[in-house]
Amino acid sequence: MTVPDDASQKSTEEIGEIVSTLHDAGEGHSPSVRDIIKRLGQASFGALLLVPAMIIATPASGIPGLPTVCGLIIALIAIQMLTGRDHIWLPDWVMERRIDGDRFERALDFLQRPVGWIDYLSRPRMTWLLRWPMVLPLQLVCVFCGLAMPFMEWVPLTSSIAAIAVCLVAVAFIADDGLLALAGVAVAVAGAAAFIQLAGHMIAGVFG
Question: Domain of 112?
């Protein structure tokens, strides 16, 4: 069956608009999470899930504490998707957290090329994976990745791997692309394995 091009185009336009909106939110100052959420307005849950994941998938993951905050945001959004809420809620201490403006802008510049790849790769396919009840494990993967990020922050690169997994699943939600969702699950499994192995080496180095 041939998939209409406009469905793919709509999804990639939404992703491009997200990056553009984030640029506007961070222009000239250090934006808070509240600033970013307000700018995004009535964005879909998939889009809201994608934003913190995209940030941690960039070198911005090196900002101390940022993987923890973004991980908790990812987990909270995914939990609300699981429970069927129709709008996002985040606690005030998360909403008031600010991101360094210069690093934020550099992270967004870093995303320009990946957004182009998404434009090329994503399209509606294997959509049954994104329908209830098959979508539930995908949402749980996002919860798991988000909750793991505060621990992964202490092991270099692993929080970015988890963020890439969430990015793939979030884009799958936006583009209705089950194949990207499967890729996200595979990356999440690889990230968990890498974290366990690297954390084991670090512990052995301390106590060995």
Answer: 5-207
